[in-house]
Amino acid sequence: MNKAIELAEYASKRLKPLAGDFAISAEERNQSQIKFSNNKISTSQRWIVTTIGIFASINKRTLATNAGIDRKSVDKAIGMLEKLSRSVSENREYRGIAEGPFKYRETESFDKKMIDLDLCGYVEDSINTCLAKGVKRASGIFDTTASYYYLLTSNNVEANDKSTKAYFSIRALAENDGSGHCVFASRRTEDFRHAETAENAAETALLSQNPGTLKQGKYDIFFEHLPTANLMEHVANSASIFSVEAGLSFLGGKVGKKVGSDTFTMIDDATADWGINSRKFDEEGAPTRKTNIIDKGVMKGYLHNTSTAKKYKTRTTANAGIISPRPINVMLQKGNLNKDEILGKIKKGLLVTNIWYTRFQNHTTGDFSTIPRDGLFLIENGRIKKAVKGLRISDNLAGMLKRAAASSNDSRSIMSWELENPITVPQIHIKDVTITRSEE
Amino acid sequence: MAVDFDSAEFALESALKQGAKFADIRLERSVYNGFLLKNGIPEVSAFDDSTGMGIRVFINRTVGFSATNNLSRDGIRNAVNWAIKDAKSCSRLKNSISLTKAKPHIDKYKVVQKTNLEDISPREKLNELFEIDKAILSTNAKAPARYFSLSDTINEKYYVNSEGSRIFSEVPRVNFYYFITLIEGRKSSQRYWQYGKAAGFEAVREFDLPNTLSADIVNLRKNMKKGVSPPKGKIDAVVGPQITGIIVHESGGHPYEADRILGREAAQAGESFITEESTGLQIGSNAVSITDDPTIPNSFGFYLYDDEGAKAETKQLMNEGRISGFLHSRETSAAMKMPINASARANSYDREAIPRMSNTAIAPGDFTEEELIEDVRKGVYIKNFTEWNIDDKRVNQKYVGAEAYAIRNGRLEEPVLSPTIEITTHALYKAIDAVANNMEYHAGTCGKGEPMQALPVWFGGPSIRIKGIKLK
Predict the structure, then answer these.
(1) Partner of B232 at 20 to 30 A CA spacing, among A236, A291, A396, B89?
(2) Which residues of B touch A40 (CB under 8 A)?
(3) Which of B177, B209, B226 is the last residue of a domain?
(4) What is the tally of structural domains in chain B?
(5) Residues A7, A8, A13, CA angle at the centre, nearest 5°?
């Protein structure tokens, strides 16, 4: 990391005479991943990458670059920024970055036991767990990352952070169209749940064999953790003021208004120890904090960086992205009931274990559809009646939040193929969701 | 050429010395310029010049991959060591991977830019976005959210492998994306699209973006103002090339990726309704043939050698409704005992090469689009779309029309709102009874792999007629 820090300091010296504001980040990442499929290893992958990222405002031109990892590359990158600043137009809406110095609360995010783990051992155990349960095939990945991060800004910020993260994804495939997909994500080895995750995937696969059909219509849905996280990512992204301005949000103009049921509370809290995406500071060095996004169904406010906060005459929520504020460590508040108790309240509905390909017809209204994938079950009187397939959720996300009937008391950190920034969610129950099916 | 050829040779030599039976190295430099205009404000201008190396080793029938941007000899040695160490560690699971051998090639190629990207100033590039914004606003449409992104990349790649291949390529690409929200009375509608080519800045001018986009917006606004509900019951749908393109990409391209068929993407992008035994199976009407062709000059998915050093070729995926070929990497071709066909791509030096589409299209027929419409008694013409999706086996798919019109007795009539096709692949391809000759390609960014690899592709085809379906 010393070399990366030295380069950041060098870039800072070069930028001082040129830029009004700047933020230079240096990150060293050692990431290891085992991809497996059909009970065998497909490939091992390793990334040893150093990134020097530079944001600069030169005469109110907002500019960004990534430099290579030597002084010559830094010189070239800054030369290009200078050239760009003479050529492009002013960003009239840019209002600066956070003014330090700051004191940072130490957040637990790094587990040295995560370095150089024998990932193959975990993968082998997980595959064997699935096979012992009686499924045919197991596929997935086990991925660990150790990251060291340094930030230096024009506004009296010099800060360090480091983190580790593990992500495990396993899809079990049984005979007769049965499949189950489960994941976990954690900051430390003691939170690993690979055996339980593999078992759950296998059990879902076995239970979902020989799926039948179901009529289109409205059904209550119990969403497991994985699909809940997928949907909540869209809600959290919609809370960024950038999304609101760009037409990518159904939460525009909703501050102070009811946007969800009383059971629905979403926060962004990057200060939580071992929070799956916790960090000490955002991309401009502002100390992270806990922000209520939606509280008991009421929209409390948008996610801001310093510049957007000034524009809207509010305080930053420490969610920079300097160009685009974004959620950092999102958590959907859990409830009091367990899964069985919630299922017990569903007379006729569906249990959805996974979704994918969520696409919006109109982000500002929330009209969208998404496709249940893997185990999908008809629920009657609180019990699984049969496996079904070939259905699509075609509804409105804004309406679904208002129809949220319950959140479970079991909260988990979820990351997935479509969800690269993990979030922490319970299972949720949504009423009267529109289900469609394809013409055959 | 700014990349150091010797460093790739050094990595290859190191890998072989450490016992790799096969190794290949991709040394890539990518120079990127990007501009973003949001609601008339230039949000950020970005420049990036990055170089890195991807190292793949094959040892004990196991594949190991590592990537680094530390290109010092120590940095490369370290990356090679990790690839070997990780692969050896994994080989205790008794993996049984084989990689098909390919003829070695020593070659270099580049896409010639008529108007060099480096000769166009950032101001001119950003001005292009201002011109588009101005054109949209001049239509008097109420467009409160307008998001435009213009970027260009020059990718230099040096590929070396232990079979003796040494291939250098230089491919420039331009990429434009827009996303607009329109308000008309109490209705709102959103429209986005992407334009991309492997070319210099001349391509951006050819796109004629101010006129193309403002015409789209005018039509969409009319649609919002005057649109009525789509017809009920069985109808015939004529869909334009944009929809043909997305259909063929999703259900005529992805399911033919051999790694999906073999289950290698099971926990990521999914599998396929097609099996290894499906070759020759009739799943569509005789009117439908599909190709994937990376060699189309200036196409967004252009390459002459894939990222495993195999020479690019046109692949026939469907011939007159019959499944006729798959997209292969070395690994999948060995597993299926089929020839390789140069379909392995990686979006960057730090990603593994896996079977991907390039430029996938339904082949044109003999009819004009007008002739397709003339024969429809009751139906819709759908020009473009908003929402779409498909399941992970590529069977259940949905397309929601944006600009669309009713057809009655062979004539285009009033606009219709959000006609929705929700249909299985088998029902759809069997229902295509006529294919027009108005061939178009459109640009897209295709996602697959883990970590995600977003790759430039074209998808396309002419207008097609889908007979006797129900709209939602």
Answers:
(1) A396
(2) 93-97
(3) B226
(4) 2
(5) 95
